[in-house]
Amino acid sequence: MASNTQETRFRRKLRAKKAGRSAKAERRNKGTTPSFPVHTPEADANAPAEAKPAKG
Fold first, then answer.
1. Predicted TM-score of the model (pTM)
2. Closest to 44 measured CA to CA, from 36, 34, 33, 53
3. d(CA 33, CA 46)
4. Contact yes or no for 52/44 (Cβ under 8 A)
5. Residues 20-35: tens digit of each pLDDT
6. pLDDT given at position 56
């Protein structure tokens, strides 16, 4: 049987290892940058002529 000290150290180590696991997994899967529209009508209107797609 382990001593109280050893049990406490083990539990603290285990708790520290598991801390933030769900948050880390969520960041890994979803990323940290929120999604935002890239090609809005305002952005396309302000774009230089070279960057605009050719019509036709």
1. 0.44
2. 53
3. 24
4. yes
5. 999 889 999 988 888 7
6. 56
What amino acid is encoded at 21 in this protein?
Answer: R
**What stretches in the chain show pLDDT beneath 50?**
none
DSSP sequence for the chain: ---HHHHHHHHHHHHHHHTTHHHHHHHHHH-SSPP--SS-HHHHHHS-TTTSPPP-
Q: What is the largest CA-CA distance in the chain?
A: 81
CA angle 46, 52, 53 (to 5 degrees): 155
Sign of CA dihedral 5, 7, 11, 17: positive
Tokens 């948050």 correspond to: 23
